[in-house]
Design a protein that fits this description.
This protein is mostly helical. It has 2 domains: 1-113, Alpha Horseshoe (Leucine-rich Repeat Variant), CATH 1.25.10.10; 153-269, Leucine-rich Repeat Variant, CATH 1.25.10.10. It has helices at residues 2-15, 21-33, 35-38, 45-52, 58-73, 82-88, 95-110, 118-125, 132-147, 155-162, 168-183, 191-197, 205-217, 223-232, 238-268.
Length: 269
């Protein structure tokens, strides 16, 4: 079976340079679709996929960016892809291409490869993309850039707005990204009541607790959030109990720090 998969992988890589556009497209698509079975270890595909990012056909650029993201997910990258991936974020009439570029940029960032000019474009896309996968991947990219220490304050109101999305995966991604931003010291008060409301959504419960805990560390907290965390600290679900207890600890620490600072300021005056 291993030899068969190696043979298929070699075939797909060779077909990336086929004279026939259909073969090139299918080869890139198959590399992405069958990544788990193929075991992507052959880096010779990377420069060929990078070349396809400049193809005149939008579908080809889309699948090439997606495949590069899949390779990056497996820890295999080609740094020369970054400038073109960033450029693809500007394709106004090819939303799928922009979404796939965001997907690739997210995993490149996870591998420690970022382009500073990408972040403002990604933040702008948060208010433009509509398809579930494209939007989710863009939020993911903004989050991964934050994990690399690159944040943009203008992302906050856009992420807060996405908390009201009817799409569960988008809400979940937005909650998690807001939690990571708060962990980097950026939090917006307007997000807190929405995050508290999402504590009733089991699909995003853990992400919402994580975000609220980080908001407390940023000194953004109110009584309704504290009460809900107290309730959850008695949850029948052990994971939720532990997460709520950690978030409450952050709240207590925040209150103690605020009182300590206030007391010292009164003494000074």
């Amino acid at each position: 079976m291993k030899k068969l998969e190696e043979k298929k992988l070699k075939k797909y890589v060779e077909q990336l340079e086929s004279q026939h556009a259909g073969e090139r497209f299918r080869a890139a698509r198959n590399l992405a679709l069958d990544a788990d079975d193929l075991g992507l270890t052959d880096q010779s595909a990377l420069p060929k996929l990078v070349k396809l990012l400049d193809d005149k056909d939008g579908d080809m650029r889309d699948v090439a960016a997606w495949a590069l993201g899949v390779y990056a997910r497996e820890g295999l990258t080609d740094e020369s892809a970054l400038p073109t991936l960033v450029k693809l974020l500007d394709e106004r009439w090819e939303k799928e291409v922009r979404g796939s570029a965001a997907y690739a940029l997210a995993f490149y960032a996870r591998c420690g490869l970022v382009d500073n000019s990408a972040l403002s474009k990604l933040v702008e896309l948060l208010g433009e993309l509509e398809q579930e996968d494209n939007l989710k991947d863009t939020i993911f990219a903004v989050e991964e850039y934050a994990r690399c220490g690159l944040v943009e304050e203008s992302a906050l109101p856009r992420l807060v707005k996405l908390l009201d999305s009817e799409i569960g995966d988008v809400r979940e991604a937005a909650v998690h990204a807001l939690g990571v931003y708060a962990d980097r010291g950026l939090a917006e008060q307007a997000a807190l009541p929405k995050l508290v409301k999402l504590l009733d959504d089991k699909a995003v419960l853990m992400e919402a607790i994580f975000a609220i805990g980080n908001y407390a560390r940023c000194r953004v907290m109110d009584e309704s959030a504290r009460q809900r965390l107290v309730e959850l600290s008695g949850s029948e679900y052990e994971e939720a109990r532990r997460a709520a207890s950690r978030a409450l600890s952050a709240y207590v620490e925040m209150r103690f720090t605020a009182r300590f600072v206030g007391a010292n300021q009164n003494r000074s005056s």
